[in-house]
Every structure is written in structure tokens, then in C-alpha cells.
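Work Package 3 committed the consortium to producing structural models of liganded targets before the mid-term review. Because experimental data for this complex are still outstanding, the team generated a predictive model from sequence and the ligand definition alone, so that downstream docking and mutagenesis planning could proceed in parallel. The input record is reproduced below exactly as it was submitted to the modelling pipeline, together with the SMILES string for adenosine-5'-triphosphate.
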Amino acid sequence: MTMEVRATMHALSPISTNLHERIKNDVKVEDEIYARLSWRNLTVVVNGNQSVLHDISGFAEPGRLLAIMGPSGSGKSTLLEGLAGRLSNQAQCHGEILLNGRKEQLSYGTAAYVSQDDVLLGTLTVYETLYYSAKLRLPDNMTRSETELIVKKTIEDVGLQDSMSTPIGNWHQRGLSGGEKRRVSIAIELLTRPRLLFLDEPTSGLDSASAYHVVQALQNLARDGRTVICSIHQPSSEVFELFDDLCLLSGGKQVFYGPIFGAQEFFASAGVPCPALRNPSDHYLRTINSDFDRVTENLKSWSKRFDVEDGCLHNPMARKSTAEQVRILVHLFATSEEKRVIDNTILSMSKMEGKVLPTRGSQASFISGHYGVAAFSIGNTLSSLPFLLLISLASTTIVYLMVDLHSGMERFAYFVLALFASLMVVESLMMAVASLVPNFLLGIVTGASIQVLLSFLTPFLSYT
Ligand SMILES: Nc1ncnc2c1ncn2[C@@H]1O[C@H](COP(=O)(O)OP(=O)(O)OP(=O)(O)O)[C@@H](O)[C@H]1O
Ligand SMILES: [Mg+2]
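The resulting structure, written out as C-alpha cells with the ligand in place, is given here.
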């Protein structure tokens, strides 16, 4: 191990000093590589007139962990996608999103988006998964030891050092737990050392202990100077306390934005204080989720039947319907002192033009939108050429000899080429279908149907 590599190993920050050096050498714009994201009056409209998000403002700062919470369908994923610039074509986004005071397209390596699903190869170990991903994502001129170092550091960042040699696991092989898989997905995105991290429900499907470990890993990443924004569903009180800031949505409207301890005061001042011994996040979601109306009705009938006192039910605000409560809370927040402070902060952030964040790595994923359909189709077709040629040669050799067709090298080569051309047509056809039909099963059905139709044309072709 070289001195340089050893020095990096002992660096205080888990962010590889090595990569810092590269960033400084390759991109001349910054010493400071922090991401300050602010959004103002963000409105998202789908299908022409259906408003999914309405007038949302907020900001995310380095070193802090922001939670976007709200009932199902409140617009958490839409807000996250809007901020990450990943909204679908049907959605129109209005408003201002600034990164370090500039209107910027979030480039590869600057920001990472961890979606809800884990797309991992079950047979690989944690280390192998990260190593292969690093080989694909990091610059080509990195040496093997540098890549290995970054992979090990990243595994440590998400606290998976004890499971480094454990296979991911699949339907027939037991492997990592759900929470560990989530952390592997996060680690893959961390390889490029993004300064801004978006995560859509990183704890969904996990028990509270696994969820705690995942969010704790996120908190560590935030404390390391990254800006972390994640949407989350009903966290336990321990998990909730790990967050710094809270953005509470209901029906696409902003109910609250600010530090999580401020939420307690805000709800208390609005007449719906969090009862003692109740998880604050449960209380906030319950207050703004209309699905709980029926639960409250049941509680009322129970308290009447058994003469039970429930402070919440006797609260004048709590006796209102959820829709009314949300309307009051949204109005209260919009006219609150907290909102004024936030607006001022956003304004000052937008005036303060910060550093341009560097783009890192050489490759990225198709889903992240970093390369187009054409590049993927051409790359995939070219890489499959040798295999298709091999398949044509092997099949022809067997069939040609078995059937005892005309001898002669020229005819044999013609057969191989004809088979190879047919395979290429099918391969290209399936690539074209895949780019037009995103659904896997529907794509197979469409491709197969076209091939059947094409085979009907064979008799005509053979006679012309
Ligand atoms: N492209 C779209 N076309 C039509 N409706 C959409 C589109 N995108 C979002 N919506 C609607 O916007 C609302 C918010 O969706 P979103 O996925 O952001 O909710 P969410 O808070 O993430 O919910 P969940 O907690 O269930 O994931 C939903 O009612 C959804 O149907
Ligand atoms: Mg969602």
C-alpha cells in the first residue's frame, strides 16, 4: 500500500481524501463542496390541471437530515422527484429550485437518488456489488487500490463492514436482511461521493431496529457535510429523533417546515398538542391524515361506552374534521413567524451564489437519466455482438453437420451470416420495443407478437 493510500485510510473524514484531491485537480471551481438546496413556491401539476404540490417552500442544508413526511398520496415522492429533477413528462413543475444559489441541472456525481426498490444481484457479496459498481461508475484512470479503498470506506460509511463477505441473497439463497440491502443500495449511490442525497422511503418494509440503523447511517452521512433529504412513512420515535428538519405535507400542501422540535411547539400553538407518551410523528400524521377520521369515531364511541377520558377527544381543535384541521394548520403555518424566517433564509440563500458543484465519475445509470436510450441501445447491441456470433457459429456447426447440407466453406459461411443477421434483427427489434414499452412483461409480449407477424411474411420473402 502506498503512502498516499495509507494517508487516506487514516483521514478523519470518511469522504475519501483521494477523491477530494481529484476533484480539486480536475475541477478548478471550488474548495467548498457543499450543497445548499432551496425551493420556493414549488407547484407541480399533472394531467394539465391536477395540482399535486401546491406552493411548497423550504431549504436543505449540508450537515442536516431533512425528513419529508405526510400521509400516503400527500406528494412526498413528487416533491423529492421535483427537487431531484426527475419528474415524469406528464408533470409540470413551476417555482424556483436553486442549488448553491444557482439554477442548476443536478449533474451526475453531484446528487444521488436512492429509489424505493433494491435492484441488486443476489449472488454477489456486499464487497463485490460495491466493487463492480465502483468499476462502472468511477473514473477509468483510478488504480485498483484506490477503487478498493473507496469501496471499503463506503461500506464503513453505511456500517456494513461486518457483512462485507455476505451474499446479497435471493429467492433460493439466504443473504442480507432487508435493512442491510437498503444500506447496500445507499452505498452504491455513495460511491461517487455525492454532496446531495435524495432517498424515497429508505425504511419502508423494515422493522424499527433496521429502520433505525438505516436512518442512523443517513445521519452519519449528513454529519459528514452532505445534504440528505428523505421521505419517510410513520417513523418510530427513536428514528424520528434522528432527523434535524421536518417538512410535513398533506394533500400536496405544506403543513409545517422547520426543525423537528419546532413542530411540537407549532402543533401545540395550533391547539393539537402531542399528548404525553405518544410518538410525535404518529401524532402529526394522525392529525393530518383523513384516514384516521374513522379511527377517531371508533375511539369516541369506545370512550362513551366505557366512560374513558381522552384528552385529545375533548380538545376543541381535535373535534374538527381532518380536512378542517389541515386547512387551519396550513393557514396558521403560512402566516406564522417560522414561515417568515424560512422565506428570509431562502431569499438570502438565493442571493448568495455559491460554488458550482463538480461532476464526478465517468458512467451512470440509465434510470438516473445520465445517458439516453440511444447510447444504451447501441452499447448493449455492440457488447452482445461477439456472443451472437458465437451462438450462430456453434448452432450452424451442429445443424450443418447433422443435416448434412451442401459442403463447402462458402455455403457454410453464408449460413452462419444468415443466422447471425436474423439474431441481430431480433436483438435490435427487442431493444427498440424495450425503449418504447417500459413494462417488462408487456415488452416481451409486444416483441413476441411482432416476431410472429414477421414469421408470417417468410413465405413471401422466400419466393422473391
Ligand atoms: N404523473 C402523475 N399522474 C397522475 N397523478 C399523479 C402523478 N404523479 C403523482 N400523482 C398523484 O399525486 C399524488 C401524490 O403522489 P406521490 O407519489 O407523490 O405521493 P406519496 O406521498 O409519495 O405517497 P406514498 O406515501 O403512498 O408513496 C397522488 O395522489 C398521485 O396519484
Ligand atoms: Mg411515495
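Reviewers should note the following from the model. The chain is about 50% helix and 15% strand. These observations will guide the Year 2 experiments.
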